[in-house]
Amino acid sequence: MRSIGKVSGLRCQVSAKIDDPPIHITLRVTMAVLRGTNLACPFFVPLEIVNDGSWPHPSRLPLGAGWTGSCRASGQELAASDTHIREFCNLGYATACPHLPRRRDWDAVRFSVARVSREQVTICFVCELAHAPIEHGKLTFDLASEVWLDAHPDPRVLRLATCYLQTYRARQNAVLI
Q1: pTM, entire model
Q2: Which of 70, 20, 29, 75 is closest to 48 using CA atoms?
Q3: CB-CB contact of 138 with 110 (8 Å)
Q4: Is residue 84 within a helix (H) or strand (E), and if so which, with residue range?
Q5: Residue 161: in which H helix or E strand, if any?
Q6: Which three-class secondary structure state does DSSP give residue 121?
């Protein structure tokens, strides 16, 4: 499901010379903002980044790349087919997924890099249920000791955040080369 938000209206004041009265110009700008639902499934257990060129825009995926892995929706870690991983696990909000439990804490987890320094990377996360935020926060990773300074108590969030961070760091290293 996608929703579209609109942002419009901008007012500015322009004066040609210091003594001239200002000319008021109202610009009407309308932008359509697509809010996609590409988020990581909280039951997905990513194991390895897929770098085979099969994803058209891998950096746009929820974890920053396509991943192979397994499913833990049943409570046990089970193998998932490549098609299942591609259509459901990597994208979240997989309501058509046959493994998705009826009762669950979240449908998806969203990540973004909030701050980067030489010492640390801070990642924001949002856990969503029915397209609404249920929980959010920040996780900070210490680059020198290679550990999370403020680990999330749910291992699913921490596992997905670690994968997102791994992808982010690999992209940053590729830029430097």
Answers
A1: 0.73
A2: 70
A3: no
A4: helix 82-84
A5: helix 155-176
A6: strand
